[in-house]
Amino acid sequence: MRIILAIIAALLAAPAIAPPAIAASPSFEVVQRGQALAIAGDCVACHTVPGGTPFAGGRAIETPFGNVLTPNLTPDRETGIGDWSDEVFLRAMQTGIGHDGEHLYPAFPYPYYTHVGREDLLAIRSWLATLEPVRNVVARNEAVRNQLSFPFDIRLSMAAWNALFFENGLFRPMPSKSAEWNRGAYLVEGLGHCGACHTPKNSLGGDRTSATLQGGAIQDWFAPALGSDLRTGLGGWSVDDVVEYLRAGRNAKSAASGPMGEVVSYSTSHMPLADLQAIAVYLKDQPAVPRDAIPPLPASDAGMQAGRAIYLDNCAACHTATGAGIPRLFPTLSGSAVVQSPDPVTLARVVLIGAQAVATAEAPTGPAMPAFGWKLSDAQTASVLTYIRNAWGNVAPAVDAGTVASTRRHLAQRAGN
Predict the structure, then answer these.
(1) Whole-angstrom distance, CA of residue 347 vs CA of residue 333
(2) Among residues 191, 24, 38, 192, which one has the least CA distance to residue 127?
(3) Of 186, 208, 184, whose CA–CA distance to 196 is shortest?
(4) How far is the C-alpha of 234 from the C-alpha of 401, rounded, in Å?
(5) Per-residue pLDDT at 253
């Protein structure tokens, strides 16, 4: 009897065991906002194999140190992020630490996503949870061993990289700036991760923060400067020019192709006009970085004369003899930041293998630039590039045949992969 009474007393004294808490489903508004934020972050571009299921991962992201495969973001519990808690998701986005405590590679732009607020990140998480689960095993560790060079094939090396180049912290608005400016800064510096392409990198792949948004080389392209420099940046563009470019993929001065074409196609062309306006306001307020003044090559220069003849024979029909182009059809070459970039790789690749401008709902026809690499030698290509970069008031260093040959070789290797 004493034993029975003791058991009863113990049960009465024990705290009641509450049933497991059921997490409240996010509201439609939160899920909808998460989708818009995922679009701003251009998540689908990296986490989708061309022609594959959106967000199922497996795309190889090229870095100077090898390729990194992107993970499956669908809510599949075994191969995606279905069994991730909110805290694990936040940790990955803001600190670059994955589900199992492994260090992620900064090809995933957590150095930028760290600036994004918790509520926005959880909204993205809520929207991703509504996707159809897709079973897609991405052999990320095997891929790392096979495709990254030492010491980057060792994930723990990212701890040292983070100590050198990663600064964890949320975006802090500037009280002296307008709400629109701060919204633009939040998008550019955070989810938009514009600096991932448009900021030059050091030898270890870290941002050269002293030259933020001043242009960077990426995958045999050169992402131009986004500061207010008149020649190599956005100094010649108005706020409306920037908005039109991001919304339609082209404006009266330029057209988006290559990696920027993907950004427009998957991201900016689907963003609210107010956000594009805010981005433009912020970018137009970025300072120009002083550059060494160089004189343009004189028209009497032998290379300029040879380049002019090649240009008139092959380029003037579309871009006109004055380099003015046809607004919103064939890009303007006079005063172009792409043309006058310190690194001529974008210009060289477009002449060698051509390019396709992005098509959007605002501008559904994407004009194409034909390839001339089959026709022009390295020396001829160098001459016409030098002419374009120094005609009609443009000023940029001459291009030599060796630079063209190197670009041609890299492009051939890329085409063979």
Answers:
(1) 10
(2) 38
(3) 208
(4) 29
(5) 92
pLDDT in tens, 52-101: 999 999 998 888 888 888 999 999 999 999 999 999 999 999 999 998 88
Count CB atoms within 10 A of the CB of residue 228.
17
**Entry pTM:** 0.89
Nearest residue to 133 (alpha-carbon basis) of 52, 79, 58, 90: 79
pLDDT at 141: 54
CATH fold of 179-416, please? Cytochrome Bc1 Complex; Chain D, domain 2 (1.10.760)
Tell me: pLDDT of 48 over 90.
yes
The answer to whether residues 254 and 338 touch, using CB atoms and an 8 Å cutoff, is yes
Which residue from 62, 348, 323, 113 is spatially nearest to 218, judged by alpha carbons?
Answer: 62
Span 207-230, average pLDDT: 91
What pLDDT is attached to residue 24? Answer: 62
Q: Which of 254, 247, 242 is CA-nearest to residue 319? A: 254
Would you list the domain boundaries of the chain? 28-165, 179-416
> What's the CA gap between 321 and 109, in Å, rounded?
42
Q: Is there a contact between 185 and 174 (Cβ–Cβ < 8 Å)? A: yes
Neighbour tally for 49: CB within 10 Å: 16
pLDDT at residue 2 tops 80: no
**pLDDT recorded at residue 6:** 38
CA distances from 97 to 62, 88, 92, 155 (A): 20, 8, 5, 11
Q: Which two tokens stand for residue 165?
A: 């180049």
